[in-house]
Each structure stands twice: as C-alpha cells, then as structure tokens.
C-alpha cells in the first residue's frame, strides 16, 4: 500500500483557486456602501477552502493501490474507472494531467434549470446542494475542459445567484420594517424594540456575504434608540436556523 505523507495534505492550501469575487458568474456584493465595519471571519476564500473537502468523482488515467490520507482511504485507482476523492485531491491530479473530473449531477444544464425554476416559484430560499457556489466556481475555473456548455452553466448559476440576492435584499427590508412598525413605542419609558429574521437554506458563502447586512443595521438602530431615550434598547435577533 502507498502511504501519502502529511505534506500531500498540506499541499491543499496551495491548490485553492481564486476567490469568488473574480468569478463573473458569482458576483461579490457591491461594497460601495461599506460602513467601515470589520470583515466577517468567514470570507469567500475560506468558504472555498472548506468546499475543497467535499467528495467528487474522477476518472484516473493511471493505476494505483489505495491511498491513505488523513481524511480517509481513497482508491484503488484503475485507469478509466470512476473513483471518489476529495475535491482538493482531484484538483492536484488534474493539474498533473492524471485524471478527468466528473462534474456533480447538479452542475448540468437540466439540473440548474430545475434549481432556477424552484427558486423562482418559491417566496423563500430554495435549498441548494452543499457548497453549491464554491464548487461551481472551482470547477469552472480549474476544470473547464471537463465541463460541457460552460458559458451556459455560468449564465444559469449567475441567474440563480441574482434571484437569491434579490430575495435577500427583500428580507433585509422586511427585517428593518419591523422597527418601523414599532416606532410609536419608541418614546415609552420601558420600550424594547424586537425584530427577528429567519433565513433558511442559505449557503455558507451567502451567510458570509450578508451577515453584516443584517447585523450592522440593528447595531446602528440600537445606538439611535439609545440616543433618543436612555432606557430604550432594541433587540434585533437573527435566527441562524439555516438548513
């Protein structure tokens, strides 16, 4: 058996592709209105790094016995026979021209159209595959030759992202409107302004983008209410029950 050294695992860091801001199919939000707040700890590059631990199928062009990695045993490898490996390992083999990456079922034209229809028909966020945007970006960037109709794939992913961004903006507006409804209570001596937001089916990447958009306004409103009346506190709660 072949035992891969720890350095093989460490090489994962070097194979991480460019961040999602550079992928025109997955646009980063406009930061022109940035208030100078700290960036969230989970930025797109970290989300992408985590996504590279997801399993994916490859078609190797070599023969090898089972390879033992920290994350598990993978193989044996037989030329032309599909085998499942971590995405970062698949990228390493791809760079060395040792395999062809098999795209996941959801990264196909028909499946993306179904996801787009589901997102359009639902008022709330539709569920998407785990690490959907990160894996789509990684494969479009690093396994272009293994995908069919790449430009159409990018267009569908972009359309899906646009619809979800629009829903997020609407959710943020509704979240802020909860404060507006309670404006008559602002001058009460014991006023406590409550607001709640429940956002299900958001991906890790979307959470990293929009967390500040939900938390920062509530902080500013809290300061505003405190200025208007010393005894007033706003209790803005975001429900992170993401599924």
Automatic annotation (TrEMBL):
It is found in: Nucleus. GO terms for cellular component: GINS complex. Residues 106-215 form the GINS subunit domain. It comes from the Eukaryota. SUPFAM superfamilies: GINS helical bundle-like, PriA/YqbF domain. The keyword tRNA processing does not apply. Gene3D superfamilies: 1.20.58.1020, 3.40.5.50. Keywords: DNA replication, Nucleus. Residues 43-102 form the DNA replication complex GINS protein PSF2 N-terminal domain. One of its GO terms (biological process) is DNA replication. Belongs to the GINS2/PSF2 family. PANTHER family: DNA REPLICATION COMPLEX GINS PROTEIN PSF2. This is GINS complex subunit 2.
